[in-house]
Design a protein that fits this description.
single chain; alpha/beta; Alkaline Phosphatase, subunit A; nine-stranded mixed sheet; four-stranded antiparallel sheet; globular
């Protein structure tokens, strides 16, 4: 063979090999805590929480400041992540504790069918029931929960997330791309009281601000530090997981996503529809694929964006799978540090039925729109209690020292303001200037000078939802109340409770603080 031909042939094989390496599909690690609000990581500026794992992902990747779930409760939020669809387009899965509809395919199922090894540890899609052809369906992949540990406090899960992830990696083929979901059970309720002070070595004085709808008390600050302790515990697993990826030379081609499913398990946050309730921490690292890391992204990010982004980065065309049309969009151009030609102009939030405690298993339907400095929401059933009926024990929010103090102060006639903010009925329309009033305490919906603004936001919200096909605005909203709970222990709870039946269910979270 002539030298020139040998040279050309060698270059051809070299270029082919490089191209093959460049086109190697990325791994995806999805790390999701349970009930953690923005801005509760140290890189966002919260001094009483230390999160070196989250901070590293943000510093070596992208930090998002406007990331929102479309529905601030475990099941519907995770359903939106897995399907790439807004919550109100998921039929039964719009609700909490649902039967997951067989018609909806999840992106991990698509990844698996395209050669990815998939799995999870800890909390996956839950709570609810997912079957297909009357057999249990793994929406995320195989569960890896065999490895256990001795948790540092009561109520913290004994699942060893890190060791189970290592088991998963040991099972996959050497060059096989993977998707793995690390689902922390923290900082979900319940907490070991004062564990943040005793074992976390925290100080009450670290809490320099308490939301204006909770009492400014030592009891509430202690509760917040216990919440912080569990966030930090889960973050330590993240640190070990990242180090393991680095040790195995997998880190640079792994998209590491760290976020949460909904806001903190405190009154007026978890399961509600104000911006603070739906706004969540989000950091994404991909050493090989993110240009100019260390950037802060302030565009609106929806949880419906995860699925289309992951499939796009895995080079799986939309037409090649049977997922329903996405509500979200791919963020590939942001990873490439390109200007988004079609940035999301506003965020729509909403909910239907969360937990238990209303007559005939009714929900509390809300839709809201966040645009610029204003948030507008419509409560479609203002005659109902937004956080559960008082006679059934406020069952729509987690039991906690903070909630108990608010309830006790109201019973004693000492503080009805906090009770009204957290549990009281709400008007049909709400409008807030979130620059001046980020916690949405002063309702501006009745201000005449803002009537045109309110009308514009309302029209934009309703017209968009109609275009999407939301049953709530298409005169079929009551369908959400007719979908049954998947758990027998929560079906028809109100009627059984009011009938004197003694009911024990972990969904109620009736802790010692409220007995």
């Amino acid at each position: 063979m002539r030298k020139s031909n040998f040279y050309l042939l060698s270059m051809f094989f070299l270029m082919t090999a490089c191209h093959s390496i460049d086109k190697k599909k990325p791994n995806i690690l999805f790390v999701i805590s349970d009930d953690q609000s923005y801005p509760h990581t140290s890189i966002y500026g919260t001094s009483w929480i230390k999160t070196p794992g989250f901070d590293r992902v943000a510093l070596e990747g992208l930090l998002f400041t406007q990331a929102y779930t479309t529905n601030a409760k475990c099941s519907p939020s995770r359903s939106s992540i897995l399907t790439g669809r807004n919550s109100w387009l998921l039929e039964e899965a719009t609700n909490h504790v649902p039967y997951f509809p067989e018609k909806f395919t999840t992106f991990p199922e698509v990844l698996k069918s395209n050669g990815f090894k998939t799995g999870y540890t800890g909390k996956g899609w839950a709570p609810g029931t997912a079957n297909r052809n009357e057999k249990k369906r793994d929406l995320i992949g195989k569960g890896y929960n065999e490895k256990k540990l001795d948790p540092p406090a009561s109520f913290i899960s004994n699942i060893d997330y890190f060791e189970n992830f290592k088991n998963f990696l040991n099972e996959k083929y050497e060059d096989q791309p993977f998707f793995f979901w690390v689902g922390g059970h923290e900082p979900h309720r319940a907490y070991e009281y004062e564990v943040g002070l005793r074992k976390g070595k925290k100080n009450i004085n670290e809490i320099d601000h308490i939301p204006d709808y909770w009492p400014n008390s030592v009891n509430v600050k202690t509760d917040m530090l216990d919440y912080a302790f569990e966030i930090e515990y889960f973050d330590r697993h993240l640190v070990d997981i990242i180090d393991e990826l680095d040790k195995r030379n997998l880190l640079e081609n792994t998209i590491v996503v760290v976020t949460s499913d909904n806001g903190m398990p405190f009154p007026r946050v978890k399961g509600q529809v104000y911006p603070f309730d739906n706004r969540l921490p989000l950091a994404i690292r991909w050493g090989k694929g993110i240009k100019d890391p260390g950037r802060v992204i302030s565009d609106y990010f929806s949880f419906s964006d995860f699925a289309p982004t992951f499939l796009d980065l895995a080079d799986i065309p939309v037409g090649s799978h049977n997922m329903k049309p996405f509500s979200g969009k791919s963020w590939r151009n942001i990873f490439d540090n390109q200007i988004d030609p079609n940035p999301r102009p506003y965020m729509i939030l909403g909910k239907e039925r969360h937990d238990v405690g209303r007559e005939n298993d009714q929900g509390y339907p809300v839709r809201g729109i966040l645009k610029g400095k204003y948030f507008y929401s419509q409560n479609f059933k203002p005659d109902r209690w937004p956080a559960g009926n008082p006679e059934t024990g406020y069952l729509n929010t987690d039991g906690s020292p903070t909630k108990t103090e608010i309830l006790n102060l109201n019973r004693q006639g000492e503080n009805s303001t906090d009770w009204n903010y957290c549990f009281g009925k709400r008007p049909n329309e709400e409008l807030y200037d979130i620059e001046k009033d980020p916690l949405c305490l002063e309702n501006l919906a009745g201000y005449e000078e803002l009537s045109d603004l309110k009308t514009k936001l309302q029209n934009q919200l309703i017209n968009d939802l109609k275009e999407q096909g939301d049953p709530r605005v298409l005169d079929n909203g009551d369908i959400f109340d007719q979908y049954p709970y998947s758990g027998e222990n929560v079906k028809n709870f109100y009627n059984r409770y009011m009938g004197g039946e003694k009911i024990e269910t972990h969904w109620v979270n009736s802790t010692d603080f409220e007995k």
